[in-house]
Write a structure and sequence with these properties.
Shape: globular
Number of helices: 12
Helix content: 25-40%
Number of strands: 20
Structural class: alpha+beta
Distance between the termini: 39 Å
Amino acid sequence: MQQERLKSYARLIVKCGLNVQNGQEVNIACGLDQPEFVAMVVEECYLAGASRVNVDWAYMPVTKLNYQYRSLETLSEVTEIEKAKLQRRVDKLPCRLWLDSDDPDGLNGTDSEKISKANIARFPIIKPYRDAVENKEQWCIAAVAGKDWAVKVFPDLSPDKAVEKLWEAILNTSRVDGDPVAAWKKHNENLAKRCKFLNDCKFARLEYKSANGTDFTVGLNAVGKFCGGGETTIGKNRVYFNPNIPSEEVFTTPVRGLAEGKVVATKPLSYQGKLIENFWLRFKNGKAVEVYAEKNQDLLEKMIAMDKGAAYLGECALIAYDSPINNTGILFYNTLFDENASCHLALGRGFNDCIENYENLTVEECEKLGVNSSMIHVDFMIGSRDMSIVGVTRDGKRVQIFKDGNWAI
């Protein structure tokens, strides 16, 4: 892999993804894959003016051993050191970067119920800190080509060749070649135009249909809005950043309790280091009341039972089937990429910034307006080649938004 392309990618993540400001701290979470690239990112952060860059390394085999041998009590504990780090995040509002290289099957064999119970116990302690930084911090998720992940995606290649090919796919879909910052500026402008069209229509609901069995209606918020591409933090120092690299989606937060029908997933879902495959969900009064999966159905059932909001929807995202990521023909087994290949929904927590004037509202006020609250936010893909999406406006007009899997507007 050419070092200059990787440096260009690192610069894109820091300048366009995080948009690090002079004097800001940066927290990076990453695996042990590609430490040289992590060092490039750290240097770019300092060149952008960061005052401190903290790197938290993780190694999935060790994570798996912790889940295997630690008691539920110790897994459930939020230590004083963790609380101090969370409080520093509230006080300093550092940029936060996740460099994802996880093995999609890396936690196979672990006790998913034990993991779920530990997360449920930790959530009430962590939630106040998370709420305190909601929409106030810059954050970004980007990818690094890990060996185990690459071999999963390209099983017929040697590990080195697989890593090389995965890097190529990451860089191409992230618009790294040429002038990446200019390319992302144009891309964000195009997504903003789509958002404006959808917001001007003032849709009351979306109707999804596909030959695979998806027949589904979801209600939208009267004070809601579609967003896409870059976001701007709230507070006195408003900073524009891109939370996902790559990203192709235009999305909104539906109204909790307004979803009916069946949705069929079109790609596997990697959750807690395991793959849920060939699955569907049926909604009634906004809640997933029935689910099925050919593989890891028990994990899907545990996921929607994590808390009171886990079985409700937090996001509806629109992405053309004819998208740069889908056109690679690659199944990435990674939500960052597969969710941006075609349309998806998300179970769990909704986005406050999909509510008009959210910056003047509290978290509780957004929830009263219908934004779902949950400890999880899990995207799953439903886009298909023949998908139709019709938007119904508040005055009853029907607008074809998607036809044959792609934008019709």
